[in-house]
Amino acid sequence: MSLQSSDITVVIAGTKRSVAGGTTAGDLFAEDKSTVVARVNGELRDLAHLLAEGDAVEAVGLDTDEGLAVLRHSAAHVLAQAVQQINPKAKLGIGPPIRDGFYYDFDVEVPFTPEDLKALENAMQKIINEGQTFVRRVVTDEAARLELADEPYKCELIGLKGGAAEAVTSVEGADVEVGAGELTIYDNIRRDGERAWGDLCRGPHVPTTKMLGNAYKLMRTAAAYWRGSEKNPQLQRVYGTAWASKDEMKDYLDRLAEAEKRDHRKLGVELDLFSFPDEIGSGLAVFHPKGGVIRKTMEDYSRIRHEESGYEFVYSPHISKRNLFDTSGHLQWFADGMYPPMHVDEECDAEGNVTRKGQEYYLKPMNCPFHCLIFRARGRSYRELPLRLFEFGSVYRYEKSGVVHGLTRVRGMTQDDAHIYVTADQVQAELKDLLTFVIDLLKDYGLDDFYLELSTRNEDKYVGTDESWAKATEALREAATDSGLDLVDDPGGAAFYGPKISVQARDAIGRTWQMSTIQVDFNLPERFGLEYQAADGSRQRPIMIHRALFGSVERFFGLLVEHYAGAFPPWLAPVQVIGIPVAEEFNDYLFEIAERLKAKRIRVEIDTSADRFPKKIRTAQKSKVPFMLIAGEDDRSAGAVSFRYRDGSQKNGVPIAEAIEEIVVAIESRVQV
User: Which of 71, 333, 406, 503 sees the fewest Cβ atoms within 10 Å?
Assistant: First the structure.
């Protein structure tokens, strides 16, 4: 420790301790090599941070999300240093940590190639091996502009700090560079004291590049517009990953490889489920017959469960006049996500003069305004509430082409949308019932690992009163807590009209997907003037609960393809049984069995192709059919079949009645085989 004449008192993990003046955060945790930064008075600081009287200090290690984020941000700096070492003309954008890794944006004349990434990894390793130290330096705006005069993007970020700091938050990742406080540059210092490189950055960083070890990898490149705007220059983004150990990185890369095998876009083609024809447009899917069977089965089961739970089915058109979305607020708050309007119904005379003004129609981005009109179509009594309206409603969102991704990010989708109108006294019970209903139904589709996320008000984008938001948020929090599931806060993540709970589900390989959302809304009933007659005869405003169970049918379909790797459980499989004759003479025998299966509404096919028997087996396995029924002479003579399963196991000589029973039970119980 660096000693001075007077001691100071600090609080370490809740315990007061006297240390010498001049002690750094790193001095306190010198023996713990996994500590990367410290939390001092609630803020993350470099280990070189000098402690002051009364500071509360905690170690932050690589076993925490915050520690990993610091490691990854430091890796982004090393990448940028390597890029400018190889190409001094490269201009720097931003380089934040992201989930499972990091990226850095560069303005370069020639896009990066896979060979470039290998060369950059080698250059990074040399920097890491040098053990360069990350040293924080406070600078004035003027000094920073002078020092970074050749870095136009950094200078632009400097202009966003201070009074215009809110603009920083609109640039994804920019908050790691500058903020409303002091401006800092991090220098990379070699062991001999020479400055190797530097970057505008808020920090903090790991103490030395050595801490990165060799548990990092550059993954891919992509084009990215500066500050996310198509009006700005297009930069080259390099994505990488970094982990606390080589083993953790290997586990991550193995998960990526498994995810690639399960990619619904690839399996959708292989299994002939859906496609995205260029003639239709980006983000607009068509479902093929086999995909149609799966989708219909998903939707039919959902309808049955909704009917059992007291929902009433409604339908609404795909387009509406502008004033509907003016009333709802969507054109004020959601216009960027809507398709441009269609101008129709204008009439002109022979000279081209307008004799009747036209109107603007929009493709609907949401179903909720239509449901409000259904509620308002006649007088309502408190006896009708809760009123649960449900629709498989097609909606359209203008997603940027760069974010459209298979079925999981589309431009045209079908939401399994419910809007529930309740009295104030009914909110809490309805929310609890909703959560139970949602989670039970998701379990029926094969998901069983959940947690909840509570999205609260975005202070820059909301409508309604503070009181209504507080009530809605508290109601959701209570329902989430009562569910017994883990609850994670998402500050500022709510839609403009109300807070929400989202059900987060983990799939078969541990990835998290946002599923159902439940939102409490005091706003739309007010905007649409919705009322019901209360028990005392007074007119009261209902409270509206928005609930999408799948989120969208398309996205949920894509999730299930990846969750099951295309091997759907029998109840969802497009072909549940395939009959495979050992030879052509057994075709009729299998057709007789197929008729008995069809009588029980089982989806069955017989492979009567000219392929040889082993090829038919391979084809069925590749198609991921749950049950293969094989018939040869021994089976026919015994009035039996042989079962072959997807894992290659086989059960011979099963009597026909028993075989049918096994299949029926598996389908009705919605188990995987």
Answer: 333
